[in-house]
């Protein structure tokens, strides 16, 4: 990438630095190093302004499941733009893309989810889910059931309710968050959080005890819902240990706490099933999804609810005159048409079985990274995975965060032609488009492995 002093005042880089505020970016670093401008995409590759190719090892932000040049989705958007570029769904209005997408999504949903409400992002879907929990409990005469439990290291987005549930310090610091309805129980990260010598079973028991203690302390009659990603994405690609959700769900049932599955990353084939809930045996009352719903080509997300919740809400809405919630762009016809075509393409191309077919190679290559001294853990499922760096081989001793190792590795890997994501646990995540070929999987990991010996050397020099 160019250095800023090379940017002429009229360059795109200089204008970006001058006018554009970036999410999740250090403005001083942006000003010093300049932005990375991506101008083009083809398949699993994206190209920067100098024409250099990169394999998008994170499908953008865990989302572009069909890669970066799916013409069927472009056609669906164009056709809908020509027919009806906008209409809303307030006050009982609707249109065919919304109706057809709702039907398709509910038919593809895990059992027990019967109705869908559309939003525009994962964060909005989660905020909507929380408002539904409050509305529902108020409707059934339990208005004090307002607290929501999430897990440390969970990521649920950045709107006010969602960022309160996201239990990562960088999302809350400086904002005086979380809001006090949000409570954070322990994270199921066995590799990092198990005590020395603790078995998986004992670790799971301890997580459950933490949850029970929190429920007892707060009072079950004040807790409306529990929210969890089937596997945690941005917090570290943390897979639930065996027995975790099996033990957890009966606790929620016992205390009449609704279960929200945040499938914003896991949904639509990522873990080798349509839903992470199927992979891990979850039976949610509410499910949120986004991202791969439209292969990220246009913003759309959804909240799926059980009839129990929908019916409770309907009674309340009848009493109050309406369900007083919705966005101008709820069920926007163009993203809805693209999402519908995405779901059709998943069927036509048998994407789930394709993921199952190539996942073993992907997993073998990820786990193969465990041979490097600096890699303490290598894990994954389906087409998602991560490696976590450690200070000493075969240990879980972390490097001092001041070294910002994961960010440095991300840059090294990027220079080698793969875009991946640095994780808060000093790791890097892989989550490529679902259409990646076996050759491209090998190319991606070959490029990554071209820098890992240097990472090993670097780690030995850090205190
Ligand atoms: C599990 C999960 N939930 C919610 C969100 C928030 O989605 P968005 O960025 O579309 O608001 C994300 C984003 O990465 C996510 O990974």
In short:
With 463 residues, the chain is α/β, with parallel strands linked by helices. The protein is built from 18 helices and 15 strands. The strands form three sheets. Strands 4-10-9-8-7-5-6 form a seven-stranded mixed beta sheet, with helices on both faces. The protein has a four-stranded mixed beta sheet with strand order 1-2-3-13.
Pick out its properties.
single chain; 463 residues; alpha/beta; Aspartate Aminotransferase, domain 1; Aspartate Aminotransferase, domain 2; 2 domains; seven-stranded mixed beta sheet; four-stranded mixed beta sheet; 18 helices; binds pyridoxal-5'-phosphate
General description of the model:
This protein has 18 helices and 15 strands. It has 463 residues and is α/β, with parallel strands linked by helices. The protein has 2 domains: 36-69 and 351-461, Aspartate Aminotransferase, domain 1; 72-348, Type I PLP-dependent aspartate aminotransferase-like (Major domain) (Aspartate Aminotransferase, domain 2, 3-Layer(aba) Sandwich). The protein has a 7-stranded mixed beta sheet with strand order 4-10-9-8-7-5-6, with helices on both faces. The radius of gyration is 22 Å and the shape is globular. The protein starts with 11 loop residues before the first helix and ends with a helix. The structure holds pyridoxal-5'-phosphate (PLP). Pyridoxal-5'-phosphate is lined by residues 61-62, 121-123, 126, 155-157, 229, 233-234, 262, 264-265, 290.
